[in-house]
Design a protein that fits this description.
With about 475 residues, this protein is an alpha+beta fold. The protein folds into three domains: about 180 residues, Endonuclease, Chain A (2-Layer Sandwich); about 190 residues, Endonuclease Chain A (Endonuclease, Chain A, 2-Layer Sandwich); about 40 residues, no CATH class. Helix content is about 45%, strand content about 20%. The protein is built from 17 helices and 16 strands. The chain has a 16-stranded mixed beta sheet with strand order 4-3-2-5-6-7-1-8-14-13-12-9-10-11-15-16, with helices on both faces. The N terminus and C terminus are likely disordered.
């Protein structure tokens, strides 16, 4: 037996995380936390400017606004210098980006690809999106995290707007090569090819951080299982920041179990969201979490878009995966889990700063006769912060929050979710009753379309060989 075997036997949690995440930790890296768009974008542009051989750039949303054009010009300039520049965007996420934006990049020599554009019978591809956010150069340096490319992340030109709250990470060292290889997989899925010499970067060790690259793919549940293991293995603290938290039942239960076992479990979520429906779904689960001892904070500022976890001052996770079924089960995602006390401390420090600008959610009994009020569900309310939160909202946010203020926190969530569902079902019922032939014809066409798509997927899977289907999957792992 080798010397490493007894050591591994003493670390069952690490072994389980390795298997769930699809790889062992990569030593010899330097990692740096990047807070909000201005800091993260500066690091991304520095990676682009410092590249010597190739640049790989992928993102769910790349807008053709001021910030998008700033990146386009930087990428185009490097392509004109002779570097291989590849840009991969998600068709759905970037559906609003102007065609002239992509033409400009292509005319400069940048190879641009769209991920999963609409296909008539390829139903699964339309449901599975590329939600990754990555800028990598030469397999040596990379920036990844939760930030898309757009003025929301910098505040734009409006003087009264603040940037969205988000987190990214700069990775330098051998783990950057693994991030580059993750790009190669999605590039091949989008129909491209990458020369082996552009996907086999071997960066020398430059630090002491051990980094696991968790490249999420549809159906593999990699980051899902990793987060479950982190929750199950947490001893003291489990602090989570998430933008669109609608945790699947297994993960929801893992958070409750940890809190009931005495772990300090805290959740930081948006108070107001760019997708209010998701925010309302998040609120439906508050009571069960609060009963188990989980503390919940709602961010009282511009949109909170970060996706981070810190555990016991030892583990730090930054990535693109939200804690919902879409990210955990269906999308291509990219996360980094570092076993680095310095990073975990930085994440905890930022978490404390963030909850200082948030309002904690609590429960209170409804007013009324005691025998009745004790049997009714408790109402949700916000605790008053220890210090007033100073934040100047833009006009759009003021209008948005004015509408939200007309409703109560306790009842709004369920009404906002089930109300539209009830209306949609009533409309569907009316169509079947009033226009049975037309509605049945439409329903039949949809069923036939789904059947053809399912048949295509069944035959495609039967025709697949057991060997890896892409040259990227056969690349050596670092």
């Amino acid at each position: 037996m080798t010397d490493a075997a007894p050591d591994l036997a003493r670390q069952p949690l690490e072994c389980a995380i390795n298997r769930a995440g699809g790889g062992r930790p990569i030593p010899g890296n330097t990692v740096r936390l990047l807070i909000d768009g201005p800091d993260a974008y500066a690091a991304m542009l520095d990676v682009i400017a410092g590249a010597r051989r190739w640049i790989h750039f992928e993102n769910y949303i790349i807008r053709s606004d001021e910030e998008g054009w700033r990146f386009a010009e930087a990428l185009a300039a490097r392509a004109r210098e002779g570097l291989a520049v590849r840009v991969l965007y998600d068709w759905l996420g970037s559906v609003g980006t102007s065609r002239s934006f992509w033409r400009f990049l292509r005319s400069a020599g940048v190879e641009v690809r769209s991920f999963h554009p609409p296909a008539l019978f390829d139903i699964l591809s339309m449901l599975s999106r590329n939600h990754r956010k990555l800028v990598a150069a030469d397999g040596a340096r990379a920036v990844m995290g939760g930030l898309c490319i757009g003025c929301e992340w910098t505040g734009g030109e409006a003087p009264d707007r603040q940037p969205w709250r988000d987190t990214a990470m700069l990775v330098e060292g051998p783990a950057a090569a693994a991030l580059d290889q993750a790009f190669a997989v999605t590039w091949v899925v989008a129909g491209g090819t990458i020369p082996p010499e552009h996907a086999m970067g071997q960066a020398p060790g430059v630090g002491h951080a051990e980094v696991r690259v968790v490249a999420g793919e549809p159906g593999r549940e990699r980051v899902y299982r990793v987060i479950e293991l982190l929750a199950a293995g947490s001893v003291e603290r489990l602090w989570i920041t998430d933008a669109y938290l609608v945790a699947p039942p297994r993960l929801f239960q893992a958070l409750q179990d940890a809190a009931e076992d005495g772990v300090d479990v805290r959740l930081l979520v948006p108070g107001s969201s760019d997708i209010p429906f998701i925010r309302n779904l998040t609120r439906i689960g508050y009571r069960d979490l609060l009963r188990s001892g989980v503390r919940i904070f709602e961010w009282d500022g511009p949109m909170l878009h970060a996706k981070t976890i810190s555990v016991d001052g030892r583990w730090g996770r930054v990535g693109s995966s939200n804690l919902n079924a879409s990210s955990l089960l269906g999308n291509y995602e990219l996360d980094v889990l570092a076993e680095d006390p310095a990073l975990a401390e930085a994440l905890e420090r930022q978490f404390r700063l963030d909850i200082a600008r948030s309002r904690e959610v609590s429960r209170r009994q409804l007013r009324g006769p005691r025998p009745i009020s004790q049997r009714l569900p408790s109402a949700l309310t916000h605790l008053e912060p220890a210090a007033p939160v100073v934040y100047r909202r833009g006009r759009r946010e003021v209008r948005h929050r004015a509408v939200l203020a007309l409703r109560t926190l306790a009842s709004n969530a369920r009404r906002s979710v089930f109300g539209p569902l009830s209306v949609a079902l009533l409309i569907l019922a009316a169509l079947f009753l009033l226009l049975p032939r037309v509605t049945a014809l439409g329903f039949g066409i949809v069923c036939a379309w789904l059947a053809l798509g399912a048949a295509r997927e069944a035959f495609r899977r039967r025709a697949e060989k057991p060997e890896p289907a892409s040259n990227a999957e056969s690349l050596p792992r670092v």
